[in-house]
Task: structure prediction
Amino acid sequence: MGGGPSGDLYVVLHVKDHERFERQASDLYSAEPITFAQAALGAEITVTTLDGEETLKIPAGTQTGTVFRIKGQGMPNLGGRGKGDLFVAVTVITPRSLTKEQRKVLEQLAEVEAKDLSDPSFVQKVRNIFG
Result:
């Protein structure tokens, strides 16, 4: 402007943190709570994505911190080819208070588990799993 030399234009962007997602490149990360029963028995849960909702299958025996990948539900890749993935970490929630029925069922489970732990073949299987 005014006949001066051409210069550079600097643009500074500030990206706000999202309440549900964390971004790393084109991938998104989120966390979902699940119940002990869902983790132990397996379940299908509904996960929020940028485009709506997606069903995620939780296999039986899922542990806290297990991360599942939903392909193509991340951010668009630079250059316009495809999208990143959504990674969902699950956390097993332990209830702070139990109903009488829940307590009764868990006490029955505890009795069965105590019997399993006294079985040498069961204990050896667990040792083999964890090395």
